[in-house]
């Protein structure tokens, strides 16, 4: 089995989650984790499972304006976050919109603030909808991994992501 994990990350949290998911899958499958800026080079038909994730911004997937806001936040003198190298590039929303209809198996994940989903929204909901629209079969419920109000991954979330990856591989 071959698995591709595509992620978008502003402050490194979704990147860390994607890498943890890949670690969980690795004992069971050939797996590659790539930032969305490198995903255009991937032939999705060569993968048995495509896992796509991004940060939740304003109740859904990021867009140019919310990525710009993340850049501004990281650039403030008192900022406690560091911007990922490719954070300003196109995100998951634009990448998914650029794909031709296809078929295969997929699953979505996101990172979001640790609060009820009805308050924060979930990027994975929109990611999953776009994946289905492209022709993918979603093989598992989407998953959210939580960050605190200072945009730091909550304790235990990397371990949980690795376990989730393992469970996906074993399905």
TrEMBL record:
Secretion signal, residue range per the UniProt entry: none
SUPFAM superfamilies named in the record: Flavoproteins
Ranges of Basic and acidic residues composition bias in the record: 61-75
Region spans: Disordered: 58-83
One function term, GO molecular function aspect: FMN binding
Domain Flavodoxin-like: 3-169
Pfam families the UniProt entry points to: Flavodoxin_5
Classification via PROSITE patterns: FLAVODOXIN_LIKE
InterPro entries per record: Flavodoxin/NO_synth, Flavodoxin_dom, Flavoprotein-like_sf
The protein's name in its UniProt record: Flavodoxin domain-containing protein
Native species: Rhodococcus tukisamuensis
């Amino acid at each position: 089995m071959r698995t591709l994990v595509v992620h978008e990350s502003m402050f490194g949290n979704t990147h860390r989650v994607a890498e943890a998911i890949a670690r969980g899958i690795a004992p069971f499958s050939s797996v590659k984790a790539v930032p969305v800026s490198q995903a255009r080079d991937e032939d999705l038909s060569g993968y048995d499972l495509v896992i796509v994730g991004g940060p939740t911004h304003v109740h859904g997937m990021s867009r140019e304006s919310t990525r710009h806001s993340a850049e501004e936040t990281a650039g403030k003198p008192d900022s406690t976050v560091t911007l990922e190298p490719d954070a300003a590039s196109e995100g998951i929303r634009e990448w998914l919109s650029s794909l031709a209809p296809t078929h295969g198996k997929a699953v979505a994940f996101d990172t979001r603030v640790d609060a009820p989903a009805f308050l924060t929204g979930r990027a994975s909901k929109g990611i999953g909808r776009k994946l289905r629209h492209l022709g993918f079969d979603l093989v598992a419920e989407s998953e959210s991994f939580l960050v605190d109000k200072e945009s730091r991954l909550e304790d235990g979330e990397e371990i949980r992501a690795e376990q989730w990856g393992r469970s996906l591989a074993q399905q």
